[in-house]
């Protein structure tokens, strides 16, 4: 209350995102949705979004309870001539070619005009490839700015070079990594605060931009909504959950199907795999006819598929950030086997919260242990559930973000 006994007006935070917070069928959307709906209890939330297509806008009504205003622009929209002009302007302003698809002059103009009114207290930009929208903040504006790193694009591209892909794809990754080199380091100094999802990512950021103000706001899980499931029915079923237009997930499924699953079936002949994820691509059709692999595709909720699963597998060999799929499986009471990179950045211990395996044979052996050793599986799931309740619940994570807002507005 203020001196007159009136309730103080809530401050306004404007989120700029890649994609909408709904549907929650990929990691970024899960993070946006769970943080925004909690932030909205204390702040007015405005949302500006860069969408892959205008069709995504059909989900806007789902955001009405949390976002007072939503503006969006579709990638590759506008006439060819307008796009050509924007493309030239993008390069002349020193922006990397790889950030071009996420450029929108109309969205940037709306952002500039809105912040210029003085009604936006905080601008939070999600992903470093959207960092160029910082240019929309007028000179002298009191608006505080945040850049949220889901991962480091340069490091992510380098890690993806380890995937078993063709020469053309590898060349594209090399070019992307080269073009992004230095981009993130140059931009962090323009923001009042940077957010990272793990301490490892914080170290990487400080290594390229010493003195950067960094806050840890990790990925999480809704432990109230995702409760431990009953024991799965008889069987030996694995589950992999992930967005299937993301190259590291495609590579992980290939690794599973070609190397891990055959080695596992040599030990456990009835073992099989369920793959759940939106956008099953053409490159996975080679596995569609196998009786030991079920490609579910997009699911309204993966929980029913977790109910039928005995072990969650995360054989990632590339990528960045931290994996929400691991936290989700832990919350649901399913033991996890992961590669070292798959669980990188999470405060997990091998043999206590999950099993970690470096190669296909070791991965298959770890899964076989969990499929045949019920006491080990139970111990892992109990310790993992306690971990996510203590350190990775979205409510506690949102409170961390709110403290960042409070700190920025106190100065």
Please explain how this structure is put together.
- This protein is of the alpha/beta class and 411 residues long.
- The chain folds into 2 domains: 12-220 and 393-409, 3-Layer(aba) Sandwich (Rossmann fold), CATH 3.40.50.2000; 237-391, Glycogen Phosphorylase B (Rossmann fold, 3-Layer(aba) Sandwich).
- Helix content is 38%, strand content 15%.
- It contains 13 helices and 13 strands.
- It has helices spanning 27-39, 80-92, 105-116, 153-160, 167-180, 183-188, 199-208, 247-267, 303-307, 324-331, 360-372, 374-391, 394-409, and strands at 12-18, 44-51, 69-74, 122-126, 144-148, 193-196, 214-216, 237-241, 272-276, 293-297, 311-314, 336-338, 355-356.
- The strands form 2 sheets. It has a 7-stranded parallel beta sheet, with helices on both faces. A 6-stranded parallel beta sheet has the order 10-9-8-11-12-13, sandwiched between helices.
- The longest helix is centred in the middle third of the chain and has 21 residues, at 247-267.
- The radius of gyration is 22 Å and the shape is globular.
- The chain starts with 11 loop residues before the first strand and ends with a helix.
- The relative contact order is 0.11.
- The model is unreliable at 1-7 (pLDDT under 50).
């Amino acid at each position: 209350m203020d001196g007159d006994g009136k309730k103080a007006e809530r401050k306004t935070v404007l989120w700029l995102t890649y994609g909408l917070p709904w549907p929650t069928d990929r990691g970024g959307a899960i993070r946006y949705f769970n943080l925004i709906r909690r932030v909205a209890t204390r702040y007015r939330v405005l949302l500006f979004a860069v969408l892959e297509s205008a069709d995504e806008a059909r989900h806007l009504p789902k955001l009405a309870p949390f976002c007072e205003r939503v503006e969006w622009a579709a990638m590759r929209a506008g006439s060819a001539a307008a796009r050509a002009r924007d493309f030239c302007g993008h390069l002349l302003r020193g922006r990397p070619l790889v950030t071009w698809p996420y450029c929108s002059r109309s969205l940037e103009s709306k952002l500039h005009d809105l912040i210029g009114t003085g009604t936006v207290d905080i601008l939070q930009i999600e992903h470093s490839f959207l960092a160029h929208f910082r240019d929309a903040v007028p000179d002298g504006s009191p608006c505080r700015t945040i850049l949220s790193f889901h991962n480091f694009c340069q490091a992510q591209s380098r890690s993806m070079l380890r995937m078993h892909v063709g020469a053309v794809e590898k060349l594209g990754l090399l070019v992307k990594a080269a073009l992004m080199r230095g981009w993130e380091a140059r931009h962090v100094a323009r923001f009042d605060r940077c957010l990272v999802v793990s301490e490892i990512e914080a170290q990487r950021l400080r290594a390229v931009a010493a003195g950067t103000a960094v806050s840890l706001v990790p990925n999480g899980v809704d432990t109230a909504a995702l409760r431990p499931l009953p024991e799965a029915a008889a069987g030996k079923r694995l589950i992999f959950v992930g967005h299937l237009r993301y190259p590291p997930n495609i590579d992980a499924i290939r690794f599973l199907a070609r190397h891990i699953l055959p080695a596992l079936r040599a030990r456990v002949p009835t073992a099989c795999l369920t793959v759940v994820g939106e956008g099953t691509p053409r490159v996975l059709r080679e596995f569609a006819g196998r009786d030991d692999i079920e490609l579910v595709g997009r699911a309204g909720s993966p929980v029913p598929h977790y109910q039928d699963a005995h072990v969650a597998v995360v054989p990632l060999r590339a990528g960045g950030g931290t994996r929400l799929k691991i936290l989700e499986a832990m919350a649901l009471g399913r033991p996890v086997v992961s590669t070292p990179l798959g669980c990188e950045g999470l405060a997990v211990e091998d043999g206590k919260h999950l099993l970690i395996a470096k190669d296909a044979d070791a991965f298959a052996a770890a899964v076989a242990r969990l499929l045949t050793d019920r006491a080990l599986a139970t111990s892992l799931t109990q310790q993992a559930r306690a971990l996510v309740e203590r350190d990775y619940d979205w409510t506690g994570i949102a409170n961390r973000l709110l403290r960042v807002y409070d700190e920025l507005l106190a100065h």
